[in-house]
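Example record

One chain of 475 residues, shown exactly as stored in the release files.
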Amino acid sequence: MADQVKKPVGIMETVLRDAHQSLIATRMPTDMMLPIVEKMDKVGYHAVECWGGATFDASLRFLKEDPWERLRKLRDGFKNTKLQMLFRGQNILGYRPYADDVVENFVEKSVANGIDIIRIFDCLNDLRNLQATVDATNKIKAREGRGHAQIALSYTLGDAYTLEYWVNMAKKIEEMGADSICIKDMAGLLVPYKAAELIKAMKEATKLPIQLHTHYTSGVASMTYLKAVEAGVDVIDCAISPFALGTSQPATEVMVETFKGTPYDTGYDQNVLAEIADYFRPYRDECLASGLLNPKVMGVDIKTLLYQVPGGMLSNMVSQLKEQNAEDRYYDVLKEIPEVRKDLGEPPLVTPSSQIVGTQAVFNVLMGERYKMATKETKAVLRGEYGQTVKPMSQEVIDKVIPGEERITCRPADLIENEMDKLEAEMKEWKQQDEDVLSYALFPQVATDFFKYRQAQQEKVDMTQADTKNAAYPV
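Predicted structure tokens for this chain:
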């Protein structure tokens, strides 16, 4: 091995975003992050993921924090490390498609407040839903020399998802002007030898760097990383050990140790990583003690591979069945999920498509007749409001659920008028910074509640005394 060319693998650390999103419902507050930033900055990480995904919603809704403020504080602390975020294409960080001017504005402000790398994905892998974000990032890069657009492909299994499919996608991503590619394996479905085959094929098809993201849910993730790195992957996503494994990522220190003394050696100092782990360990214990960290999410769930259903989707389904006193129908629903997925054009199962398919499968089983009742989200998918699926949707289901309705074939956002001015007009009484308009755009109600809370804090009003219903605050 000694005569092999050195090719150190990069590690993106997820503890400040995906690790706590996966294990403790994105509840880590900014104050927990800041004291360790200086130490994390010394590691030499490829990047630290610290924003986007569910952090935005959770900060406003549960932590009563301004997510933009968090980003600025982290940016101040990380002097040498790139910061990365997760971005849901045309849905940004919300749950509906937004107009291009909102997307462009959001990218602009994310980079201005400190983001270096934007990882962009779409729940259908419809690349048209990613173009506006890539263009916006490239515009800033041309102007300021910073900003990196990474397109993430949601990894999934099924007839449509051949090696040829992934390779063609890689070529298209390069043509779109993206800076790198990520294979985003949200359910832990990518097994070791398949990973090697996939990375090798993609590496032959594109010059772009390739990053691999997976979750430990099915128990194979560390082995998958080992084979992927040997096959030439450039960066892997890991979490510092107290917040690794289970539904999170493989542990950073384990992967660093694995590649030590090989051509892939990261060069990271285990002593520094140990100090970071020591910092997070008491917090993990606290989360276990309070019940915020459920030991259930720490185990291996091989059913993930059996049913190709992400862990979160399974637990969601079980609670839906419980509410209906129909837990005995569990296996019927598991059989129905792949059928519904096929009817809807075989989309990857990731937010929000996983929730849509899962809920519809529950309805189909409990109603005793398939699509007797369809959710409004199922109808939206069938209409093409989320974009185009890899395979055609079932005509029979379309005829049953949305008979005679017109379907969208263009990029869904082409039908949305610019909306920044309208949004700003709606919320101008609360605006203290330009970013507030974007917070409001994504979560109108939650952001408004936060703005009221913020104002009360600034004016030192006792919220317990305040009559929030009539918006009368005692001074």
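Notes: The longest helix spans residues 270-290.
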